[in-house]
Write a structure and sequence with these properties.
Layout (H helix, E strand, L loop, with lengths): L3 H15 L4 E6 L10 H8 L6 E5 L2 E6 L2 E6 L5 E5 L8 E7 L4 E5 L6 E5 L22 H8 L6 H6 L9 H10 L13 H23 L37 E5 L2 E5 L6
Antiparallel strand pairs: 1-6, 2-3, 3-4, 4-8, 5-7, 6-7, 9-10
Helix pairs in contact: 1-6, 3-6, 5-6
The structure holds zinc ion (ZN).
Zinc ion binds next to loops.
Length: 270
Protein backbone atom coordinates (compact mmCIF):
# COMPACT_ATOMS: atom_id res chain seq x y z
CA UNK A 1 0.00 0.00 0.00
CA UNK A 2 1.42 3.42 -0.86
CA UNK A 3 2.34 5.12 2.40
CA UNK A 4 3.20 8.74 3.19
CA UNK A 5 6.77 8.52 1.80
CA UNK A 6 5.55 6.99 -1.48
CA UNK A 7 2.93 9.72 -1.79
CA UNK A 8 5.56 12.40 -1.11
CA UNK A 9 7.83 10.75 -3.70
CA UNK A 10 4.94 10.68 -6.16
CA UNK A 11 4.42 14.40 -5.60
CA UNK A 12 8.08 15.14 -6.26
CA UNK A 13 8.10 12.79 -9.25
CA UNK A 14 5.16 14.30 -11.10
CA UNK A 15 5.42 17.94 -10.05
CA UNK A 16 8.18 19.12 -12.42
CA UNK A 17 6.38 17.57 -15.42
CA UNK A 18 2.91 19.00 -14.97
CA UNK A 19 3.09 22.27 -13.04
CA UNK A 20 1.80 25.32 -14.94
CA UNK A 21 1.05 23.35 -18.11
CA UNK A 22 -2.36 23.65 -19.70
CA UNK A 23 -4.60 20.59 -19.50
CA UNK A 24 -5.87 19.73 -22.99
CA UNK A 25 -8.07 16.72 -22.26
CA UNK A 26 -9.08 14.16 -19.67
CA UNK A 27 -9.92 10.52 -20.28
CA UNK A 28 -11.67 8.48 -17.60
CA UNK A 29 -11.92 4.81 -18.57
CA UNK A 30 -13.18 3.61 -15.20
CA UNK A 31 -15.33 5.83 -13.00
CA UNK A 32 -15.81 3.28 -10.25
CA UNK A 33 -13.05 3.99 -7.74
CA UNK A 34 -13.57 4.22 -3.96
CA UNK A 35 -16.03 7.02 -4.80
CA UNK A 36 -17.37 7.65 -8.32
CA UNK A 37 -15.05 9.83 -10.41
CA UNK A 38 -16.89 13.08 -11.30
CA UNK A 39 -15.74 12.97 -14.92
CA UNK A 40 -17.77 15.89 -16.31
CA UNK A 41 -16.91 18.11 -13.35
CA UNK A 42 -13.20 17.36 -13.74
CA UNK A 43 -13.35 18.19 -17.46
CA UNK A 44 -15.27 21.36 -16.74
CA UNK A 45 -12.85 22.49 -14.04
CA UNK A 46 -9.56 21.42 -15.60
CA UNK A 47 -9.57 21.61 -19.39
CA UNK A 48 -7.68 24.73 -20.52
CA UNK A 49 -6.56 25.30 -16.93
CA UNK A 50 -3.23 24.70 -15.22
CA UNK A 51 -2.12 23.21 -11.92
CA UNK A 52 -0.39 25.98 -9.99
CA UNK A 53 0.74 23.88 -7.01
CA UNK A 54 0.76 20.32 -5.72
CA UNK A 55 0.50 19.71 -2.00
CA UNK A 56 0.27 16.64 0.17
CA UNK A 57 -1.99 16.22 3.20
CA UNK A 58 -1.40 12.87 4.88
CA UNK A 59 -1.65 10.40 2.01
CA UNK A 60 -3.78 12.72 -0.12
CA UNK A 61 -2.40 14.72 -3.03
CA UNK A 62 -3.98 18.11 -3.60
CA UNK A 63 -3.48 19.49 -7.10
CA UNK A 64 -4.45 23.13 -7.12
CA UNK A 65 -6.17 24.70 -10.14
CA UNK A 66 -7.24 28.31 -9.60
CA UNK A 67 -8.56 28.33 -6.02
CA UNK A 68 -9.85 24.76 -6.17
CA UNK A 69 -8.29 21.33 -5.78
CA UNK A 70 -8.23 17.89 -7.34
CA UNK A 71 -7.89 15.41 -4.47
CA UNK A 72 -6.11 12.17 -5.35
CA UNK A 73 -5.63 9.19 -3.06
CA UNK A 74 -3.75 6.12 -4.24
CA UNK A 75 -5.81 3.69 -2.17
CA UNK A 76 -4.37 0.21 -1.71
CA UNK A 77 -2.62 -0.20 -5.03
CA UNK A 78 -2.79 3.03 -7.03
CA UNK A 79 0.06 4.81 -8.74
CA UNK A 80 0.58 7.91 -10.84
CA UNK A 81 3.17 8.20 -13.56
CA UNK A 82 4.10 10.49 -16.39
CA UNK A 83 3.40 8.71 -19.67
CA UNK A 84 3.65 9.53 -23.34
CA UNK A 85 1.71 7.89 -26.15
CA UNK A 86 2.55 4.45 -24.89
CA UNK A 87 0.39 1.39 -24.80
CA UNK A 88 -2.12 1.29 -21.99
CA UNK A 89 -1.70 -1.24 -19.26
CA UNK A 90 -4.58 -2.99 -17.62
CA UNK A 91 -5.98 -0.81 -14.79
CA UNK A 92 -4.80 2.49 -16.34
CA UNK A 93 -8.05 4.21 -15.43
CA UNK A 94 -7.48 7.94 -15.81
CA UNK A 95 -5.37 10.16 -18.09
CA UNK A 96 -4.90 13.90 -17.67
CA UNK A 97 -3.31 15.03 -20.94
CA UNK A 98 -1.32 18.26 -21.17
CA UNK A 99 -0.58 20.66 -24.02
CA UNK A 100 2.85 19.10 -24.61
CA UNK A 101 1.21 15.64 -24.89
CA UNK A 102 2.64 14.40 -21.63
CA UNK A 103 0.06 12.39 -19.73
CA UNK A 104 -0.48 12.10 -15.99
CA UNK A 105 -1.70 8.53 -15.85
CA UNK A 106 -3.45 6.86 -12.92
CA UNK A 107 -3.33 3.09 -12.55
CA UNK A 108 -5.19 1.29 -9.76
CA UNK A 109 -5.79 -2.47 -9.92
CA UNK A 110 -7.89 -2.66 -6.75
CA UNK A 111 -9.71 0.64 -7.31
CA UNK A 112 -9.65 1.81 -3.69
CA UNK A 113 -8.14 5.16 -4.66
CA UNK A 114 -10.02 8.36 -5.41
CA UNK A 115 -10.20 11.37 -7.75
CA UNK A 116 -12.42 14.03 -6.23
CA UNK A 117 -12.86 17.78 -6.51
CA UNK A 118 -13.13 20.37 -3.75
CA UNK A 119 -13.11 24.13 -3.34
CA UNK A 120 -12.24 23.80 0.35
CA UNK A 121 -9.85 21.02 1.40
CA UNK A 122 -10.02 22.04 5.08
CA UNK A 123 -13.71 21.19 5.30
CA UNK A 124 -13.71 18.22 2.91
CA UNK A 125 -15.02 15.03 4.54
CA UNK A 126 -11.83 13.12 3.77
CA UNK A 127 -9.49 15.78 5.12
CA UNK A 128 -11.21 17.74 7.87
CA UNK A 129 -10.49 15.28 10.69
CA UNK A 130 -6.86 14.61 9.89
CA UNK A 131 -4.32 15.14 12.67
CA UNK A 132 -1.05 17.02 12.22
CA UNK A 133 1.65 16.09 9.71
CA UNK A 134 4.51 14.16 11.32
CA UNK A 135 6.97 16.21 9.28
CA UNK A 136 5.28 19.50 10.15
CA UNK A 137 6.05 22.01 12.88
CA UNK A 138 3.20 21.17 15.25
CA UNK A 139 4.23 17.54 15.74
CA UNK A 140 6.42 16.46 18.65
CA UNK A 141 6.49 14.21 21.70
CA UNK A 142 4.70 16.72 23.90
CA UNK A 143 1.80 16.87 21.44
CA UNK A 144 1.39 13.06 21.50
CA UNK A 145 1.81 12.93 25.28
CA UNK A 146 -0.86 15.57 25.95
CA UNK A 147 -3.26 14.00 23.46
CA UNK A 148 -2.83 10.50 24.88
CA UNK A 149 -3.60 11.14 28.55
CA UNK A 150 -6.33 8.76 29.80
CA UNK A 151 -6.38 6.99 26.43
CA UNK A 152 -6.62 3.24 26.89
CA UNK A 153 -6.00 2.26 23.27
CA UNK A 154 -2.76 0.39 22.57
CA UNK A 155 -0.01 2.85 21.66
CA UNK A 156 0.26 1.24 18.22
CA UNK A 157 -3.38 1.99 17.40
CA UNK A 158 -2.98 5.46 18.87
CA UNK A 159 -0.16 6.45 16.51
CA UNK A 160 -1.82 4.76 13.51
CA UNK A 161 -5.05 6.73 14.03
CA UNK A 162 -5.01 9.52 11.44
CA UNK A 163 -7.07 11.75 13.76
CA UNK A 164 -4.06 11.82 16.11
CA UNK A 165 -1.29 12.00 13.52
CA UNK A 166 -1.35 11.24 9.80
CA UNK A 167 0.88 8.95 7.79
CA UNK A 168 2.04 6.37 10.34
CA UNK A 169 1.27 3.14 8.49
CA UNK A 170 1.64 -0.33 9.95
CA UNK A 171 5.25 -0.86 8.93
CA UNK A 172 6.33 2.52 10.30
CA UNK A 173 4.44 1.96 13.55
CA UNK A 174 6.16 -1.41 14.07
CA UNK A 175 9.58 0.03 13.37
CA UNK A 176 9.23 3.26 15.35
CA UNK A 177 7.92 1.44 18.44
CA UNK A 178 10.88 -0.95 18.28
CA UNK A 179 13.35 1.92 18.00
CA UNK A 180 11.67 3.72 20.90
CA UNK A 181 11.58 0.48 22.94
CA UNK A 182 7.83 0.66 23.54
CA UNK A 183 5.71 -2.47 23.42
CA UNK A 184 2.92 -2.03 20.83
CA UNK A 185 0.23 -3.20 23.27
CA UNK A 186 1.06 -0.61 25.95
CA UNK A 187 -1.85 1.72 26.75
CA UNK A 188 -1.19 5.07 25.10
CA UNK A 189 -2.13 6.89 28.31
CA UNK A 190 0.63 5.08 30.19
CA UNK A 191 3.53 6.07 27.96
CA UNK A 192 5.81 8.71 29.51
CA UNK A 193 6.63 12.09 27.99
CA UNK A 194 10.24 11.02 27.59
CA UNK A 195 9.19 7.89 25.66
CA UNK A 196 6.87 9.95 23.48
CA UNK A 197 9.73 12.29 22.68
CA UNK A 198 11.86 9.36 21.51
CA UNK A 199 8.91 7.87 19.64
CA UNK A 200 8.11 11.10 17.78
CA UNK A 201 11.77 11.45 16.78
CA UNK A 202 11.81 7.86 15.50
CA UNK A 203 8.60 8.39 13.50
CA UNK A 204 10.07 11.47 11.84
CA UNK A 205 13.37 9.72 11.24
CA UNK A 206 11.91 6.64 9.55
CA UNK A 207 9.60 8.71 7.35
CA UNK A 208 12.45 10.99 6.31
CA UNK A 209 14.71 8.04 5.52
CA UNK A 210 12.01 6.48 3.37
CA UNK A 211 11.45 9.75 1.52
CA UNK A 212 15.21 10.06 0.92
CA UNK A 213 15.26 6.51 -0.42
CA UNK A 214 12.33 7.36 -2.66
CA UNK A 215 14.37 10.17 -4.15
CA UNK A 216 16.42 7.59 -5.99
CA UNK A 217 13.29 6.38 -7.80
CA UNK A 218 12.19 9.75 -9.17
CA UNK A 219 13.35 8.98 -12.71
CA UNK A 220 10.94 6.02 -12.72
CA UNK A 221 8.04 8.42 -13.00
CA UNK A 222 8.80 9.20 -16.62
CA UNK A 223 9.01 7.14 -19.75
CA UNK A 224 8.79 3.86 -17.93
CA UNK A 225 6.13 1.19 -18.38
CA UNK A 226 6.59 0.17 -14.81
CA UNK A 227 4.78 1.74 -11.99
CA UNK A 228 6.88 4.08 -9.88
CA UNK A 229 9.37 2.15 -7.85
CA UNK A 230 7.94 1.95 -4.39
CA UNK A 231 10.95 1.18 -2.35
CA UNK A 232 11.83 -1.46 0.14
CA UNK A 233 12.45 -0.31 3.66
CA UNK A 234 15.32 -1.53 5.76
CA UNK A 235 13.31 -3.17 8.48
CA UNK A 236 14.32 -4.14 12.01
CA UNK A 237 11.14 -5.96 13.09
CA UNK A 238 8.35 -5.85 10.51
CA UNK A 239 8.16 -9.21 8.73
CA UNK A 240 10.91 -10.64 10.97
CA UNK A 241 8.74 -12.56 13.48
CA UNK A 242 10.48 -15.73 14.69
CA UNK A 243 13.88 -14.24 13.87
CA UNK A 244 16.41 -12.80 16.29
CA UNK A 245 16.22 -9.24 17.56
CA UNK A 246 19.12 -7.33 16.01
CA UNK A 247 19.90 -5.78 19.40
CA UNK A 248 19.49 -8.53 22.01
CA UNK A 249 19.06 -11.74 19.94
CA UNK A 250 15.73 -12.61 21.60
CA UNK A 251 13.18 -14.15 19.25
CA UNK A 252 10.80 -11.51 17.85
CA UNK A 253 7.11 -12.13 18.54
CA UNK A 254 4.12 -11.40 16.34
CA UNK A 255 0.71 -10.46 17.69
CA UNK A 256 -2.34 -9.00 15.99
CA UNK A 257 -3.52 -5.58 17.15
CA UNK A 258 -6.46 -3.98 15.38
CA UNK A 259 -6.20 -6.73 12.72
CA UNK A 260 -2.67 -5.64 11.86
CA UNK A 261 0.48 -7.66 12.31
CA UNK A 262 2.59 -6.31 15.15
CA UNK A 263 6.10 -7.62 15.58
CA UNK A 264 8.11 -6.74 18.66
CA UNK A 265 11.00 -7.82 20.83
CA UNK A 266 9.70 -9.10 24.19
CA UNK A 267 12.94 -8.09 25.89
CA UNK A 268 13.75 -4.69 24.36
CA UNK A 269 10.19 -3.32 24.22
CA UNK A 270 8.46 -2.69 27.56
ZN1 LIG B 1 15.62 -7.19 21.61
Amino acid sequence: MPELPEVETTLRGIEPHILNKTVSSIIVRQTSLRWPVPTELLKDKLINKTFSAIKRRGKYLLLQASEEFLIIHLGMSGSLRIAREEKLKKHDHIDIIFEDELILRYCDPRRFGCFLWTDNPDSHFLLKNLGPEPLGNSFNGKYLFDLSRKRKAPIKNFIMNSKNIVGVGNIYANEALFKAKIRPTRQAGRVSLQKFETLSEEIVSILRKSIDQGGTTLRDFVGSDNKPGYFKQQLEVYGRQGKECKICSSILKNITIGQRSSVFCPKCQK
